[in-house]
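Hey,
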Amino acid sequence: MAEQKIPTGPFPVLPLGKGIVARDMVLIGASFVLLALIIPLHWVIDFTIFCILVLSFDLLYGFMGRLSFGHVLYYGTGAYIASLMLLHVSRNPFLAIAAGVGVGAVLAVVLGFVVLQTDGAPFALINLAFNQIGFWLAASGLQKFTKGEDGLNTPVGKWGFLDFANQPLAFGFLLICLLAVFLLLRVLTLSPYGITIRSIKENDDRVKFLGYNIFAYKWLTFVLSSTLAAFPGTLFALFYGFVAPTIISPFGNVEVIFAVLIGGAGNLYGAIAGGVVYKLMSNYLATNITRWEMVLGVLLLIWVFKFRRGLTGYASELVLRLRQRPAAEV
């Protein structure tokens, strides 16, 4: 019998993960295509962008257990930088994406050294403070560049056959982006790196005792998560052609947090499912009910208290019960 090789290094995919990753990507892609056939396409495009943002937050909160109230700072940064690139440099969408993600990454690298000096509630609140500063800069501090509350009207991204004004083409491109982010995070979370950050979530003192540099892992995860948050911000700017300070408002963090809780923290499937469910509820209620914010708040509270482990946790429990039932009857 041939000896099985064990993967080494910080990022190799575990043997079990390769088939699972391919299966998951096919299921996610098919699910979004099916959604696009059932509900308005612009809704599904909005869902796709939002789900990438939720995935990025799940890496930080769901897998490493660090709750941040400043995650949309990087989302908004990516959107503004991409818009400025489209306005003043080039309509090439890939240049706009690269610039937005690059600036978001640099911001995360710098702020990561500051916010990670704390943990728990102070960590969440310091991130909130930086997010509030970013919101103020967008609304008034850098009004000369951001146009303040009036926002930036930008040309829709276009390069070759890729035209974001064409909704089917834009949806196809955004779906590829979502699957690419999912693949990246799936590889990372199935790797020894992913096991380490989950261990940090459970007990970082024990991980430190084992000789790991936990600050390096925290910082790397924070930078990865924040950089990935800037990515959907650039996609938002490319598709909608308008960016206003509301995109960087600290209140946006609540939506992302609720989406993760709805789907189940620490599960990439849950992040996507939670993002879709949250957007479905908010879009449907906003279209059909006058005081929709209050109704949405009540529904979210009921959901979080009823399904404490989220959709994925409830589904796992249900599958386990169904598997145990025949054995119990025998």
